[in-house]
């Protein structure tokens, strides 16, 4: 179950999407998410869907991989859909019990919202699937650098994110190990009522917290031993440089935004 | 209650680009009362194999029959399996969680649904078996103990379930020589006392040679050979090829044998080696 979470998982590949500059990919993803909410007609949403499916096809990440990422938020999508369905006003299509009614307006909003959420998750999953966590945080650091004037600790934020991302698999592995060890001692996590189940988590959580603190301490020690002292004057092994494909991507992105905005305000 | 493992195969992350075959057509049998050693370099599939033995992992194909029960069949109750098979993981001290040593050791027996008196009895017995003073230690927090003591408490937690098969995955990793010796002596004592099957995974060839009746050698997910320590440690070349070595005594005897053919190389214990060298020297006059 734990392994089903796609967000933050890298799918190794050599496609042009994988090789794009992480900064460009981050900007494109943010712009894409904004565009999703600007688009409010069939043409707009269809363009956005086409764009993300095109990117997925180019990246050669199997679609099943992206769909797996949707599973955990399936419930949220359904919930939003149902909520929107009954919140609309205007022309009534069906009237249900308790005065609940589905309106034409509500139906379109609900469908659009659900599609938007699905595309949003697919778009952002594609970013994390095609970008190594380290380049992702490098990109974020680089994008945040101008904010240094306002005393935003860009490097420190990026470092924290790198560490957090780096240790997700480690902690998952640790959880898995502890769960197995307690199962071997006859612990049962699956049956019983909610209180019983919550209580059965204690044998996992206590050792997990202790491990997390131990890992943190060891990491801090290892970083200090290698003279880490923050971001000032740090150079990188792989500097980021924009290439031809990155500018091509920017042009495509502007084109896409042009269509979305044009469709919304001028059609 | 013997263990019969037949043609089990396990694949991690099947269908993903990083899938890997962890166990490849492994078969062996373990008889009642045996002390079995498993050796193999890191990543050879030892831990995966152990997790199959108490149903934490299910094989993709093949069967595991323990005491006449096929634990790979879907209608087998895993709880009953875990009652019979105690698995002590690597670094078991990281699974301690209770406020007191007594409560932590009682966790396993309590999960078995025993009565309070039985639990208290078993905790007392298990702590005695791992060589810890019950009265002195029962109210202490497991986190204030030393590394070696923590590990004993964790092992006691499994021993208290009175498993018919006790599996120890590298129980001595990261311990100092004294604690190392104590833990193994403890494993031997438990084996004698409980008349169980004990399975020991270790990288220390001398320990394996000394303690085990039977040795299984794993390499890249395959069981490459098995037999008595004498048989397994007689083939130095093959062991070296898969990244293992002989126990120091055996290696020494092999070197002597290379120089003087009349010295027997198949000796694993220091005492026997001394006798053999004396015999050789005496022969020469």
Protein architecture, described:
- The complex is a heterodimer of chains A (267) and B (285).
- Chain A has eleven helices and two strands.
- Chain A has 267 residues and is mainly α.
- Chain A has a two-stranded antiparallel sheet.
- Residues 1-7 of chain A have low confidence and may be disordered.
- Chain B is an alpha/beta fold.
- Helices cover 42% and strands 21% of the residues of chain B.
- The chains are: A mainly alpha (267), B alpha/beta (285).
- Chains A and B meet through helix 8 and helix 10 of A and helix 2, strand 6 and helix 3 of B.
Write the layout of secondary structure elements.
The complex is a heterodimer of chains A (267) and B (285).
Chain A lengths: L15 H4 L2 H17 L3 H18 L3 H8 L3 H14 L4 E4 L5 E3 H27 L2 H12 L9 H31 L9 H6 L2 H24 L18 H23 L1
Antiparallel strand pairs in A: 1-2
Helix pairs in contact in A: 2-6, 2-7, 2-11, 3-6, 3-11, 4-6, 5-6, 7-8, 8-10
Chain B lengths: L2 E10 L7 E11 L4 E5 L6 H8 L7 E6 L2 E2 L7 H7 E4 L12 H11 L4 H14 L4 H4 L9 H13 L5 E5 L7 H18 L2 E5 L3 H7 L2 E6 L2 E6 L1 H4 L3 H6 L6 H12 L10 H15 L1
Parallel strand pairs in B: 3-8, 3-9, 6-7, 7-8
Antiparallel strand pairs in B: 1-2, 1-4, 4-5, 9-10
Helix pairs in contact in B: 3-4, 3-6, 4-6
Oligomer: heterodimer
The major β-sheet of chain A equals: 2 strands, antiparallel
Number of domains of chain A: 2
Please report the total strand number of chain A as a whole number: 2
Mean pLDDT of chain B: 88
Q: Tell me what portion of residues of chain B adopts beta-strand conformation.
A: 15-25%
* Radius of gyration of chain A, taken over Cα atoms and rounded to an integer in Å: 23 Å
Principal-axis shape of chain B equals: globular
Characterize the overall form of chain A. Answer: flat
Order of helices and strands of chain B: EEEHEEHEHHHHEHEHEEHHHH
Q: How many distinct beta strands of chain B?
A: 10
Largest interface comes to:
A-B, 19 and 25 residues
């Amino acid at each position: 179950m734990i392994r089903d979470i796609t967000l933050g998982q890298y799918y190794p590949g050599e496609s042009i999407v994988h090789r794009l500059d992480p900064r460009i990919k981050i900007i494109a993803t943010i712009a894409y998410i904004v565009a999703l909410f600007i688009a409010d007609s069939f043409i707009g949403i269809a363009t956005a869907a086409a764009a993300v499916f095109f990117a997925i096809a180019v990246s050669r990440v199997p679609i099943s991989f992206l769909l797996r990422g949707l599973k955990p938020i399936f419930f949220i999508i359904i919930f939003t859909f149902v909520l929107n369905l009954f919140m609309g006003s205007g022309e009534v299509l069906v009237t249900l019990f308790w005065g609940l009614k589905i309106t034409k307006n509500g139906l379109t909003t609900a469908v659009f919202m659900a599609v938007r959420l699905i595309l949003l998750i697919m778009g952002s999953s594609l970013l994390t699937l095609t970008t190594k966590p380290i380049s992702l945080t490098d990109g974020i650091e680089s994008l945040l650098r101008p904010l240094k004037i306002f005393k935003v600790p860009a490097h420190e934020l990026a470092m924290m994110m790198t560490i957090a991302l780096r240790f997700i698999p480690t902690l998952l592995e640790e959880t898995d190990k502890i769960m197995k060890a307690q199962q071997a001692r006859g612990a049962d996590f699956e049956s019983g009522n909610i209180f019983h189940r919550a209580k059965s988590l204690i044998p996992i959580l206590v050792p997990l917290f202790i491990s997390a603190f131990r890992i943190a301490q060891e990491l801090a020690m290892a970083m200090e031993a290698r003279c880490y002292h923050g971001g000032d004057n740090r150079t990188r092994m792989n500097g980021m440089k924009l290439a031809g494909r990155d500018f091509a991507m920017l042009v495509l992105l502007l084109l896409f935004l042009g269509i979305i905005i044009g469709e919304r305000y001028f059609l | 209650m013997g263990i019969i493992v037949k043609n089990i195969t396990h694949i991690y992350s099947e269908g993903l680009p990083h899938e890997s075959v962890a166990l490849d057509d492994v078969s062996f049998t373990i008889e009642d009362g045996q002390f079995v050693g498993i050796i193999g370099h890191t990543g050879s599939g030892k831990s995966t194999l152990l997790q199959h033995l108490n149903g934490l992992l299910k094989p993709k194909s093949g069967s595991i029959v323990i005491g006449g029960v096929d634990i790979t069949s879907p209608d087998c109750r895993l709880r009953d399996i875990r009652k019979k098979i105690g698995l002590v993981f690597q670094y078991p001290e990281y699974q301690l969680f209770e406020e007191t040593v007594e409560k932590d050791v009682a966790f396993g027996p309590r999960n078995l649904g025993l009565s309070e008196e039985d639990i208290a009895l078993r905790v007392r017995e298990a702590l005695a078996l791992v060589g810890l003073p019950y009265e002195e230690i029962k109210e202490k927090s497991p986190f204030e103990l030393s590394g070696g003591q923590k590990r004993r408490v964790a092992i006691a937690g499994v021993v208290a379930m009175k498993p018919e098969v006790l599996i120890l995955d590298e129980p001595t990793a990261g311990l100092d020589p004294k604690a190392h010796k104590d833990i193994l002596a403890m494993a031997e004592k438990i084996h004698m006392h409980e008349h169980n099957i004990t399975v020991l995974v270790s990288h220390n060839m001398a320990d394996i040679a000394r303690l085990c009746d039977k040795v299984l050698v794993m390499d890249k997910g395959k069981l490459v050979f098995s037999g008595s320590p004498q048989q397994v440690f007689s083939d130095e070349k093959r062991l070296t090829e898969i990244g293992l070595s002989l126990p120091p005594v055996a290696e020494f005897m092999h070197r002597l044998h290379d120089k003087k053919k009349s010295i027997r190389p198949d000796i694993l214990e220091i005492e026997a080696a001394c006798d053999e060298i004396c015999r050789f020297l005496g022969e020469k006059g």
